[in-house]
Amino acid sequence: MIRETDFSRLAHTWEQLAERMKQNGDTTTPAKLLQLADKTKRAELNIAFCGHFSAGKSTMINTLLGVNLLPSNPIPTSANVVKIRGGEKAARVYSMNSGVITFDPDTEMEKLKQFAVDGDTVESVEVSYPGTFLDENSSLLDTPGIDSTDAAHKIATESALHLADVVIYMMDYNHVQAEENFNFTKTLKDRGKPVYLVVNMIDKHIDFELDFDSYKESVEEAFATWNIHPDGIYYTSLAEPDHLENQYEEFKNKLSALIVEREELVADSVKSAAEHLIDEHVQVLKSANEGLRQQWESKLTTLEVEDLDSQDATAVGEALQQAETEAAVLASLPEEARKKMEKELSVLLDNARLTYFSTNEAARAYLESRKPGFKLGFLFAGKKTEEERARREEALLADLREKVAGNLDFHFKELMGKQPQEYHIRDEEYHAAVHALTVGITPEFLAANIKDGAQSQEYVLNYCKDISNGIKLEYRRAGLGFISQVVTRLDQQVKEQNEEQQARLTVLRELAGVHEKLAELAAAEQVTREQLQAILHFQKA
Length: 541
Hints:
There is one protein chain. Mean pLDDT is about 85; it is low at about 75-80 and about 150-155. Helix 1 packs across helix 15 (about 455-540), helix 2 runs antiparallel to helix 9 (about 260-300) and helix 12 (about 380-420) packs parallel to helix 15 (about 455-540). The relative contact order is 0.09. By secondary structure, the protein is of the alpha/beta class. The chain has 3 domains: about 1-40 and about 275-300, no CATH class; about 45-260, Rossmann fold; about 315-525, no CATH class. It starts with a helix and ends with a helix. The longest helix is centred in the C-terminal third of the chain and has 84 residues, at about 455-540. The chain is rod-shaped, with a radius of gyration of 49 Å. The chain is built from 15 helices and 9 strands.
C-alpha cells in the first residue's frame, strides 16, 4: 500500500515544479501542476471517458452509475469536463467570474447543463452522488467529443488529460477505424496512460456480412498497425443488454477493479503526468522563444554560401573550420614557400660536388705556380714561367667550369625554373633570367682564395674547399634573389585570393553566429528541462 506521506511528498514536488515554472514566465502549466498536486494529496483516481460525441459516453456513464446525471443527446452538449465522484449529493460549477455555484443534482441539473455548455466562463463542473460504485476518492470524467468542430471542446479534453489516471476511449461500432481514433489513442499511450477501448453500439452489427470474431480481429489489427496496444478492448451494447457479444458487465467489473487498485494507479499516473507537464512547460518556453528563433532562422535564409546548406549547423561549422584553416594556410603560404625553396636550394648546394681528384691535381699545380720563386728553365725562364703559370691557371679554371656546369649549374637552373610552377606562377622574364645566369669563375676568383701558408697537401684540399664554397656562395646569392622574386609574386597572388577567402569567411562566421544563437536557445530550454527533471527524479529517489 502506498503511504499517505508518499502522496504528500509527491504533491509537494509538483508544487515545487509549479513554482519553478512560474519563475520561468509560464502562466499555464503551473496551474495544471497545482491541480495535479491537489489530486495527488487526495490520491484521487480519475477515469476519463473520451471519444466521439456520438459514441454514447454520457449514456454509458449514466448506466454505470445507475442514475441519469448527464445529458445523452447525440450532439456535443458540454464544452467542459464534468467530474462525477462518490460522496454526499452535490453539484458545483467552478466559474471564472462568479466563483463556486452549487446546485441540487436531483432537481436543478437543467441549470447545471446550461453552465456546462458555457466554455467561456466555466472552469469545471463537479457532481458528487452517493450510492454508485464510485467513492469519494474515485471519479469519472466526462470529456467533450474529440471530433467536435468547436475548438473549446478539444482544448477542454486535452487540458484534462493530465488529471486522468485511466482513459476509457469509446467508439461507435461504425466509426472504429476513423484516423482520429488512432491519433488520439496513440497520443495517450505515448504519455504512458492505461487505455481501454470500448466499441459501443455493437447491436448495429450484421452477422451475415461479417462474423463478429472477424470484426473483433479487424479492430485489433487496425490498432496494431498503428503500433497501439490498448490495455483492454470491450464490445458493448446499451440498447440490447442481452446481445450475445455484449461485454458491458465485464467492462463495469473492470472499472471496479481499477478503483481497488486506485493508489498504485494514481502513484504511477501522477509521475507520468508530471513528466509530460515538464515537456509541456518546455514547449511553452519554446513558443515564447519562437519569435526570436524565427528571427534568427530567417537570417539564415539571407546568408548564402556556394555549395553549402546554410540551415545545417554542422555543415556550417565544418565549412567555417575548413575556411579558417585554408585562410591560415594561405596567409602563411609566402613565408612557408620561402622556407621550402631556401631549404631545397641548400640541399642542392650541399650535395653538389665540385672538386674531384683532377681538380685537386690542377689546384696543386696552380698553387705551386703561385709560390714565390717559382721558375721554369734557364733560357728565357721568365717567359716560360709565365706561360706555365697561365697554362696551370687555365687547367684549373677549365676543370672547375666543367664540374660546375655538370654538377651544379644545370641542377640549379632546373630547380629555380620549376619553383614558381609549384605555386601556379607563370613568368617568362623570370625563366629567361634564370637560364641567362652566369656565375663567373675567373683568374681573379682563383687568386683571391689563396691564403698565406705552407703549400702542403692539406692546404691544397682546403684551397679546393674554399673555391668550391666560394662558387656555391655565388649560386646561393643568385638563388635567394630568384626566391625573393617568387615570394613577391606569391604575396600578390595570396592577397587576391585572400580577398575572396575573407568574404566567404565573413558570411560563414555570421552563419555560425546565428546557429550559435539558435543553439543557445535550445540549450537554455534543455537546461530548464534537466533542472525540472532533477527535482522530479530526486523526489522519486
